[in-house]
Amino acid sequence: MTHTPEASAASQSPEPPGGPARPGLSIGMITVDTVDARALAAWWAERFGATVTDDFDGWFCSVTGGSLSLTLGFQRVEEPTPGKNRVHLDLALPLSGPSRAETVAAFVAAGATVHDTVAMPEFGWTVLADPDGNLFCVGDPST
Amino acid sequence: MTVAEFVAAGATALESHGTPGAAWTVLADPDGNRFCIGDPH
Predict the structure, then answer these.
(1) Residue pLDDT, tens place only, A75-85
(2) In degrees to the nearest 10, what's the CA dihedral of A38, A43, A49, A53?
(3) B1 contacts on A by Cβ (under 8 Å)
(4) Cβ-defined contact of B38 to A28 (cutoff 8 Å)
(5) What ipTM was predicted for this assembly?
């Protein structure tokens, strides 16, 4: 990674990358289509120590709390969406805590499957699929 | 950014939904990925 003087100065600023937050359009939740919203919401809630906070008769389940930084939605649809999901979750590990290998093992024990493991010079991640087949990634902790 | 601005920027408005207490528009981005814009609540 190259550090320019400008980048170093910016890294000392309290502002987040991309500048300070401002009012406007934001992401309310990230929502996954599924034929069994209750089951998938419960599965993901358990992974984050979160809670299924809405149900709407199984048609729309939202998951909040725990270690989640935003709300996940699970919307019941009649047919599985074909093909590979085009939006995926990139999960982040804390700097101190379970390793990526331990976290991946816990996901697999809960019913996820490992699809790929990628190693870059300074960063690595594992691609997994949830019980519905939605791909997501677990990356190494990064500063 | 409103639905009209998204459409002007190349998104496609697909559906509008309303239920008691919530209303939203389903759009597609230029790649066809669907997303929703809900009313403030």
Answers:
(1) 999 999 999 99
(2) -10
(3) 24-25
(4) yes
(5) 0.84
